[in-house]
């Protein structure tokens, strides 16, 4: 199978999905700030955005420049990608107006603990991590996989503590998720 058509379809989908997410995030940001929400993590946010933009640029460059092919394992990897996209939609729907690409916290808001948040604290970051792995694996772009898996791990070491600190400061986050792991799903009875 030629990898040009699947590659173009994937890139088109990812660009469209990210643009839709930015529209949702901007709308939610406006709604939250009108109600007195506070933004945290401004210092690192621009690096997060840059990292995501560079991910796509490096992925496309590596695919084209090194003529990387669709992996023979693409059906299994693509299934993981589809499951991740379904999870992303579930996350956005579960958080509703509170979902954002920025850390924006509405003081005294009830902490969301439905959808995938019933099982873990940070499902969104799990999905982002999954994407940084499965997207490069689909087309055997191993430089992209290695570089951005490491960069993402580093970014999450900054971002997650910042987000948790903000939530603890302005909401009942600590009490709500006191017995939850950041990434390992909790079995809910």
Automatic annotation (TrEMBL):
Its main location: membrane. It is found in: Membrane. The chain crosses the membrane at residues 44-61, 73-93, 133-158. It comes from the Bacteria. It is a multi-pass membrane protein. InterPro entries: ICMT_MeTrfase, Metal_cation-efflux_comp. Signal peptide: none annotated. Keywords: Membrane, Transmembrane, Transmembrane helix. This is Isoprenylcysteine carboxyl methyltransferase. The lineage of its organism: Bacteria, Bacillati, Bacillota, Bacilli, Bacillales.
């Amino acid at each position: 199978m030629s990898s040009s058509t699947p590659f173009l379809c994937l890139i088109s989908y990812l660009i469209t999905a990210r643009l839709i997410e930015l529209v949702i995030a901007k709308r939610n940001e406006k709604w939250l700030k009108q109600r007195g929400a506070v933004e945290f993590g401004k210092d690192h946010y621009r690096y997060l955005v840059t990292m995501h933009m560079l991910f796509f640029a490096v992925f496309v460059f590596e695919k084209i420049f090194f003529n990387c092919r669709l992996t023979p394992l693409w059906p299994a990897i693509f299934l993981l990608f589809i499951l991740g996209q379904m999870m992303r939609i579930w996350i956005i729907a579960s958080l509703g107006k509170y979902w954002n690409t920025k850390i924006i916290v509405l003081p005294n808001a009830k902490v969301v603990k439905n959808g995938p948040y019933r099982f873990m604290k940070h499902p969104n970051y799990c999905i982002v991590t999954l994407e940084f792995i499965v997207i490069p694996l689909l087309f055997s772009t191993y430089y992209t996989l290695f570089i951005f898996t490491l960069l993402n791990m580093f970014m999450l070491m900054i971002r997650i503590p910042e987000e948790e600190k903000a939530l603890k400061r302005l909401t009942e986050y600590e009490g709500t998720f006191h017995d939850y792991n950041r990434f390992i799903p909790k079995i809910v009875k």
